Amino acid sequence: MVYSRRVANEQETFADQLRRKGQEAEQTLRSINSLVASNVTAARTLRGMTQQQLGQRLEALTDRRWSKATISALERSADGIKVRQFDADDLVAIARVLDVPLIFLFKPSLPDFRPNERYAPHSVGDQAEPTADDWTAVDLARVLFGAGDATAPVGPGDAADLVADTFSELLGTLDAEATGRLVTDVTAQKLSRWREVLEELAEEVTRAMAERSERA
């Protein structure tokens, strides 16, 4: 009996383990905004930044009031009780100040991944119970990256391909601009050195002509 159990465990895939743990775990439901709030705390902690420092830097960037109390309330909204509603300006400013990719703010709960945690793109009440219609972490990943499951069937123009093509084009543009700036900088440096050399030559010629005049 013990042997057959060991064999069964050895044959259990990682996906099976996640599924089993998810079935064993209590289901929870949270809004996307509360997920963002918890990731703001994670990023701020990662950067060794206080709530006051984060607020000050956001104020400098956005010209809006971000007090320590505002940041504290924002982060407390991760518990889902009184959730802050983020707009696009907020998200971009926060990601910029914390120096994290914007997508970091939407990542599912890590490192304690909870496969049975559900997400909803709307407000979630205190007593709300997850349903089959709510998003799983995989559903959220598909929204973020285009394909949360590489084995899932996809159609023409799949979002993952669209994202890959768009970012490839963007990175190519950024690389070209960086190369252009590099060429400009190098050219400016060379011109500066050439100017210094020409000025030195001009001084040498002037001195030589003066010395020749004196001898004559």
Summarize the structure.
By secondary structure, the protein is mainly alpha-helical. Helix content is 62%, strand content 4%.
Commentary on this structure:
This protein has 216 residues and is mainly alpha-helical. The chain has two domains: 2-152, Orthogonal Bundle (434 Repressor (Amino-terminal Domain)), CATH 1.10.260; 156-216. It contains eight helices and two strands, in the order ααβααααβαα. A two-stranded parallel sheet has the order 1-2. α4 crosses α6 (88-98). The longest helix has 57 residues, at 159-215. It is elongated. The protein starts with a helix and ends with a helix. Mean pLDDT is 74; it is low at 1-9.
How many runs of DSSP E, i.e. beta strands? 2
State the helicity in percent bands. Answer: 55-70%
Which residues sit in consecutive blocks of at least 5 with pLDDT less than 50?
1-9
Order of helices and strands: HHEHHHHEHH
> Mean pLDDT, rounded to whole units?
74
Key descriptive features of the protein:
2 domains, 8 helices, 216 residues, elongated, 2 strands, two-stranded parallel sheet, 62% helix, mainly alpha, disordered N terminus, 434 Repressor (Amino-terminal Domain)
